[in-house]
């Protein structure tokens, strides 16, 4: 059961990352390459927004992963919870965090749009 929850979270995160890459990061990369012909003197500036965008996505996903890990560690550390009850708590923890992915995605898209301008 826990493996299924882990798979579900991984699929949700992978889907989010692919969506962000397709809808935001690739557009920023294209713009960066298009502008790079005029950026020979200041290449750091040309690549700054893309690096900032990638750092933002990495940071937000790390925070999400840390939060999920803390939740599952907290649930797993309770001595009284065994068997089905533990599975139920882990499932709720995962469900709650997977439901947050939509909010996280919206937040990252807004931030990426601001960086890309």
Automatic annotation (TrEMBL):
InterPro entries: DUF842_euk. GO terms for cellular component: cytoplasm. Pfam families: DUF842 (PF05811). PANTHER family: PROTEIN FAM136A. Belongs to the FAM136 family. This is Protein FAM136A. It comes from Muntiacus reevesi (Reeves' muntjac).
